[in-house]
Amino acid sequence: MKTKYIQILGDALIPLCGLFFWGWGLYFILLFYFIDMFAGEIVLHLKSNKIIKTQKQKVYSWIKGSLLSFFCSLIVVLVSHFVVFIVVEGINIKEQVFLFWNYEELGIKQGPLLIPLVLITTLMQYKTEFIDPKMYKKVQINQVWRRHNRSLFALIGLAGFSLAIAQFFVLPEYVYVFGLVLSTTVYKIRFN
């Protein structure tokens, strides 16, 4: 249980440190969240495959859950981009992605390290929280996807709320970063 809270704290501190100490902006932090989100998608397919092979469940729930997840993820990414276009004046997405990929810390490019690091961390979490305790024997595939898609619905709500706020009020980027970090942290503590 302690490890869960340490991980949640780390997940919150990294973007906040990036914002205050390393000069990261809203879009840079969102890219980090998107990578994490898609790594989670990969693990969900691994979980689904393991459940189906172990419990001989039908593939229908996997297909249904993954299609809903795909469309929800797409909505989150699109709405988040609309927010960024409103909040960050004159942003060049291509340039920001390039800067993200080529970001250097201590002379080492972080982009090529970040994606494998996020994947490895996510896979380790999959092993310790799903494989080792043999959760694939206990949970139903639709439970796994329902839980995941519920988190995506929450992200759609957050992105939509941010878009509505951005339409009416000019707020600094850090307010959106705080909102993102706070809401994802509260969600992880409450539902994970």
Question: Any overview of this molecule?
Answer:
The structure is a single chain. This protein is mostly helical and 192 residues long. The chain has one domain. The chain has helices at 2-20, 26-55, 60-87, 93-101, 111-131, 141-168, 173-191, and strands at residues 104-105, 108-109. It has a two-stranded antiparallel sheet with strand order 1-2. The longest helix is centred in the first third of the chain and has 30 residues, at 26-55. The radius of gyration is 18 Å and the shape is globular. The chain starts with a helix and ends with a helix. The model has no long low-confidence stretch (mean pLDDT 90).
SS content category = mainly alpha
Residue-averaged pLDDT: 90
What is the helix fraction of residues, given as a range? over 70%
Main sheet overview: 2 strands, antiparallel
Q: What's the overall geometry? A: globular
Instruction: Report the strand count.
Output: 2
Distance between the termini: 11 Å
Strand percentage lies at under 5%
Q: What is the C-alpha radius of gyration, as a whole number of Å?
A: 18 Å
Low-confidence stretches: none
* Strand arrangement, major sheet: 1-2
Number of domains: 1
Order of helices and strands: HHHHEEHHH
* Individual helix count: 7
Keyword list:
192 residues; mainly alpha; two-stranded antiparallel sheet; 7 helices; 2 strands; globular
Task: Describe the secondary structure blueprint for this structure.
Blueprint: H1 2-20, H2 26-55, H3 60-87, H4 93-101, E1 104-105, E2 108-109, H5 111-131, H6 141-168, H7 173-191
Helix pairs in contact: 1-7, 2-3, 2-5, 2-6, 3-6, 6-7
